[in-house]
Amino acid sequence: MLPEENENDIEQRDGSNRIVITVIGPDRVGIIAAVTKVLAEHSVNILDINQTIMQEFFVMVLVADMDKAAVDLLTIKDLLHSKGEELQVRIDAQHEDVFNYMHRI
Amino acid sequence: MKRLLTTEEILETIKMVQKDNLDIRTITMGISLRDCGSSDHLEACRKIYEKITTKANKLVKTGDDIAREYGIPIVNKRISVTPIALMAEASSVDHYIEYARALDRAAEAVGVNFIGGFSALVHKGFTAGDEILIKSIPESISATERVCSSINVATSRSGINMDAINLCSRMIKKTAQLTASRDSIGCAKIVIFANVPEDNPFMAGAFHGIGEPDCVINIGVSGPGVVKSAIKKNGNSDLGTLSETIKKIAFKITRMGELVGRTTANRLGVPFGIVDLSLAPTPAVGDSVAEILEEMGLERCGASGSTAALALLNDAVKKGGAMASSYVGGLSGAFIPVSEDAGMIASVLDGALSLEKLEAMTAVCSVGLDMVAVPGDTPVETIAAIIADEAAIGVFNNKTTAVRIIPAAGKDLGDQVEFGGLLGKAPIMDVNRFSAAKFVERGGRIPAPIQSLRN
Lengths: 105, 455
Prior knowledge:
The structure holds 2 protein chains of 2 kinds. By secondary structure, chain A is an alpha+beta fold. Chain A has one domain (15-103): ACT domain (Alpha-Beta Plaits, 2-Layer Sandwich). In chain A, 36% of the residues lie in helices and 32% in strands. Chain A has a 4-stranded antiparallel sheet with strand order 2-3-1-4, sandwiched between helices. In chain A, β2 (45-54) and β3 form a beta hairpin. Residues 1-8 of chain A have low confidence and may be disordered. Chain B contains 15 helices and 14 strands. Helices cover 43% and strands 17% of the residues of chain B. By secondary structure, chain B is of the alpha/beta class. Chain B has helices at 7-18, 41-55, 59-70, 84-88, 97-110, 128-143, 162-178, 224-234, 239-268, 289-296, 306-324, 342-349, 355-361, 380-396, 437-440, and strands at 24-31, 74-81, 115-116, 120-121, 147-155, 159-161, 190-194, 215-221, 272-276, 368-375, 401-408, 416-420, 424-427, 445-446. Chain B has 2 domains: 30-194, Anaerobic Ribonucleotide-triphosphate Reductase Large Chain, CATH 3.20.70; 219-374 and 384-443, Anaerobic Ribonucleotide-triphosphate Reductase Large Chain. At the A-B interface, β1, β2, β3, α3 and β4 of A face α1, α3 and α9 of B.
């Protein structure tokens, strides 16, 4: 559809720094606060938050920019993962490309 | 501008990974060993070790990093090399076990679980090196952990080399005996091909073909669970709609392969080769091609209708997948290995799936008779005849077929072999007890088929 989708796209995207964070689990007080605190502490800028309750489960999808982040994606992923264990919810952080590549042509 | 991702799209991807076992089955680095030949075999082995450990040094680490960043499991990191017969022939030894050991050491050093390419291409005849290689396979496979072997015995352009098939079936029997203490596991690492692809990333049949660059990254995707789940969600649609559903989901699965392949190649500074669209099952429940066919409406995989259902599945996966990748290659079709697919194992145990039905199904999907265990006393001529039948399906229909058969030493009907891990377990299947010995012992070659008058 757009000329930007060319063969070199991955190479360019590999430099992009947006991540998607998903939180899934039983609802409880303080989940958003805890997750955003971890991000703020490491200078990860939140671009968009979407939160909903699906079949009693708390589902939050958060898009963030790592451009000015103090740490890399894998470190943030680990930090969020252990925060998730503490809160008894599942927290994942993935590079945004996964979703763009699967759902956008 | 691209539309922003919706929560539903993001959650769909997450569900595919977390619930339906979506993964990248393998990142396989192809490495040419054509510059490693030497008249001194120890020198050649040193060069092989050196080249593999240099090229694949960062393969596993890069794969693991990408898996974590993208949140998509990458199950295996593997290596394929130039068919060893091609480069070992320059040396004067009469056994190639040292080459297999060098491959095994190199694979261990870089942390990959399998290395493919202890191979020869003999569809028209043998060179001295080809013959030595095939005769070296039983000792070499049983003395190593990670080395995989493949032999191409037929092509649509040159016909079927029955002498090669006879030699290979003797070699398979010997390997079964040498690895008898481990349920003849050696045979799980030997594939006999017709029309072998040169860029296949999947083991045990992977090797680095002669038309390939010095080093290349090939990707094998997976995702039977994701396809099954999409079919289930689709309800009782007609077959045309079913095909559309499979195409759409195959597209999404393959996009992950394309992304991971290109990113890996980019980070390693190696050209990106192909994505192999094969639906590769694992022994895990819910990760089964047989279960897809059952979700499509068969009571059991192997029932009448299995060939038609598999044909629909295979074609839809290719159509969807081909749109998602710039370069498609390898085997690219559904795999129906018995031991590696929980649904196939169940079908055999229930008496729904016979060797003959499995053979029919291989006419419309990739690979062939894969990971089938047969009684240990199956005559060598019968194994040759089974391979010849499968080769005929491939050669006369212009497709790849293969046989990975385990004549499990000391086992008979009612027993099973257990390999563990991705190789799984398999019940011993019944083999037609009538002999084809006089036919296969004629030897020589079955001529290449005519390409017109196609019926």
